[in-house]
Amino acid sequence: MPSPKPRPSMSIETAPKMSWWNRLAHPGQFVQWTRPLVLPLALATAVLFVAGLWFAFFNSPADYQMGDTVRIMYVHVPTAWLSQFVYATMAVSALGTLIWRHPMADVSMKAAAPLGAVFTAMALFTGSLWGRPTWGTFWEWDGRMTSTLVLLFIYLGIVALWRAFDDQLRAARVVAVFTLVGAINIPIIKFSVDWWSTLHQPASVFRPDGPTMPGSILTPLFVMFFAFTLLFITLQLIAMHTEVRRRRITTLERRAAREGAK
Amino acid sequence: MIGLGEHAEFIIAAYVGVFSGLVVLIGWTIYAARRSQQRLKELGDTRSDAADQ
Amino acid sequence: MSGFGAVLGREIRLSLRGGGEMLTLVLFFIIVGAIVPFAVGPDKDLLQRIAPGVVWIAAFLAMLLGLEKLFGPDRADGTLALYRLADLPLSAVVAAKVIAHWLTAALPLILASPILALLLAMDLAAFWRTLFSLLLGTPALAGFGAIGAALTVATRRGGLLAPILIAPLCVPVLIFGVGAIAPVGGPEQAQAALLFLAALSLTVLALSPFAAALAIDWGED
């Protein structure tokens, strides 16, 4: 492998004037631009979580059908939403990687994958804890739980694929292909699993027309929903900053190794 | 604290599980960030984003 | 076209000469199916009920087994690098490989499936449906397999990774494949499943060469 020519190091000061899009593409600039957002976002997340928990436990009645188990919904619905939202984030980032070769899209994809896996696992965990009192079983092979399980497998596959490569730039492009293949597949999986579970299940176990939700339940649900979403955005930003730094470390380590070899 | 009805243990387990998971996730994210900052300092990086935060 | 035919011919010749690899695959397929009665007991009713699932699982596992051979040897001896430079688009090469993979890894299994049907106490009608659903569904497995193999070809420890990546994607194939055999919801549902299976295979066959070629091309430098 021929060693790349030493280029004059480009710093923020010497970089030419760029559009915001290009500026966002420069990892150093991205970190500079988004770092001031982290603290306000973290504070807003904390406030929303405190408010959400207060609503969830002290200021919302038990549901007339589900009873107190409805409180599990306040952590289940936001995590279930995030399990799909994070995948959408990854799919959009994958498009950014494949079409524009946007460097921050790589970083965003890599930062989101473990977060998505954790949120999906949480959705399954809370879902099964809700299912035990409601359906009488921790695990029911119903459409939603099954397709969430498959989604978790896809997330874990993506994390494993990232780790299988040494060169993260090549990994990014390969992972982007898989992420998009998965994105096309997820609706098909969802559909097939729904078809399958309605065939194999007595219809009385699960009714698709859920109980109508009164406002007292909607308030904590919305607060928690925003709390979890903001938490994801905050963690995603911090993880992206870390990933940018990691790449810088790799570059510096290589440079040090080259100089050591001379 | 209000009474959580007959299924209190499930509700508590769900919240404890999720929030301990979140604490681990947040802790790990911050730990990874700190570690990468530390390593950058060791390598003598001069860029501004190595030092603060 | 001649380039496409040449790649196809080369792949088939290689696997025919490959020292009984095809035979190993068929043996694996039959043994996986034959080991199930030992695990669940020789109850004929039970076996008859789970036979479609067992046949599909055996075919699925057997097709995963041959994935490493799809691009791995070609990358090791440099053929893949030449393919990338050739006039023939890489996606056409991959398409030829998918077809060859189906012919050498799926067709033998389908031909061997009567043995498994016999061992698992299938009746004749169920056997014909099995044959049909395997014929319609295995192309999708071959296409997904090509994607998985292409994604992991540039990694050093890709061997186990490809099955893990594509197994979740193959869930619809298994669902509709088994659904077409075992008419849980009556014959019209089985008919629908068969049509879905065919649609899935066509879509995967049409798209997978492009995705796999993209993954190969960008996995290299």
Structural summary, described in words:
Helix content of chain A is 78%, strand content 0%. Chain A is mainly α. Chain A has one domain. Chain B is an all-alpha fold. Chain B contains one helix and no strands. Chain B has one helix at 8-42. Chain B is rod-shaped. With 221 residues, chain C is mainly alpha-helical. At the A-B interface, helix 2, helix 3, helix 4 and helix 7 of A face helix 1 of B. Chain C: The chain crosses the membrane at residues 21-40, 46-67, 106-127, 134-154, 160-182, 194-216. Chain C: GO terms for molecular function: heme transmembrane transporter activity. Chain C: InterPro entries: Cyt_c_biogenesis_CcmB, Cyt_c_CcmB_bac. Chain C: It holds the Pfam family CcmB.
- How do the SSEs of chain A run, as a string of H and E? HHHHHHH
Q: State the assembly state of the protein chains.
A: heterotrimer
- The radius of gyration of chain B is 20 Å
Structural class of chain B: mainly alpha
Structural class of chain A: mainly alpha
Radius of gyration of chain A: 22 Å
Q: How many runs of DSSP E, i.e. beta strands of chain A?
A: 0
Which whole number gives the mean pLDDT of chain B?
79
Fraction of helical residues of chain B: 55-70%
Please state the average pLDDT score of chain A. 82
Function (chain C): Required for the export of heme to the periplasm for the biogenesis of c-type cytochromes.
GO molecular function, one term (chain C): heme transmembrane transporter activity
Membrane topology (chain C): Multi-pass membrane protein
Transmembrane segments (chain C): 21-40, 46-67, 106-127, 134-154, 160-182, 194-216
